[in-house]
Design goal:
10 helices; four-stranded mixed sheet; 2-enoyl-CoA Hydratase, Chain A, domain 1; alpha/beta; seven-stranded mixed sheet; about 15% strand
């Protein structure tokens, strides 16, 4: 029998056969990382890491978006200044990514929806990422006068050098097959119905492994990423804050919200 978390809010948690499934369940705001969602997701990850009966974590979503990144609007509505909201979002993103990387258990992302901004950080920090045909990807930060600063720590080791040289700069949308080809995700399936089968295959392999074997094997794959993470997270967060407070970023986000073009946009689209 699955054990289900009593709180059926923005994060749902269920554990069955040594696997904890965490579902982002805030589709109304595209599973954006509000303070509540970050807090509950952080707690769910910590609980799974501490539970000796849990062998792996699956992170998935409800609705058509896996995760749209930080919910700055929610922070502003709570009375935070734009600078405070940005700092809070950066701290939350850093904490989530590090928790996923440092957990001595595999974390598997299963996404069949849009991945944007901080959603890339969750995908990049996962050990295994399985995506369906409805997944789309776009790193649009540069179009807003920003950069994928914090999430780059998890993305640069996973994506090919040529792909980050393109998609960090152009903001182009790309599909699941491309995401697999460039190393962002582990496997892209052509039909949503195939995701369960792909996940089952991965989990059956994990269930055959010992906790000690899993922890030691994962440490081999994340040691270099964690070392870089701890060395650079502070600088990347400061960079992100500086960009968010700039005039160009204000112009870019204002244009985005009004569906207009910022002054630097000379594209024909």
């Amino acid at each position: 029998m699955a054990e289900v978390d009593a709180d059926d809010g923005v994060v749902e948690v269920a554990t069955e056969r040594a696997v904890t499934t965490i579902t982002l369940n805030s589709p109304a705001n595209r599973n954006a990382l509000s303070s509540v969602l970050v807090g509950r997701l952080s707690q769910a990850l910590a609980d799974a890491a501490a539970d000796q009966e849990v062998r792996a974590v699956v992170l998935t979503h409800a609705g058509g978006t896996f995760c749209a990144g930080a919910d700055l609007g929610e922070a502003l509505r709570r009375g935070l200044s734009p600078e405070e909201a940005t700092a809070e979002g950066a701290k939350g993103m850093v904490g989530l990514m590090r928790a996923m990387l440092a957990m001595p258990k595999p974390v598997i992302v299963v996404a069949d929806g849009h991945v944007r901004a901080g959603g890339f950080g969750l995908v990049g920090a996962a050990d295994i990422a399985l995506v369906g045909p409805n997944a789309t990807f776009a790193l649009t930060e540069a179009r807003l006068g920003l950069a994928p600063s914090i999430i780059s720590i998890a993305l640069l080791p996973k994506m090919s050098a040529r792909s980050v040289g393109r998609y960090f700069l152009t903001g182009e949308k790309f599909d699941p097959a491309t995401a697999e080809r460039i190393g962002l995700v582990t496997q892209a399936v052509a039909d949503s119905g195939e995701l369960d089968g792909a996940l089952h295959q991965v989990l059956e392999g994990i269930r055959k492994a010992s906790p000690q074997g899993l922890a030691a094997s994962k440490a081999l794959t994340t040691a270099a990423i964690l070392a870089d993470f701890d060395a650079n997270a502070g600088a990347r967060a400061a960079e992100s804050a500086a960009l968010f407070s700039s005039d160009e970023a204000r112009e870019g986000m204002t244009a985005f919200l009004s569906k207009g073009k910022p002054g630097w946009d000379t594209s024909q689209a």
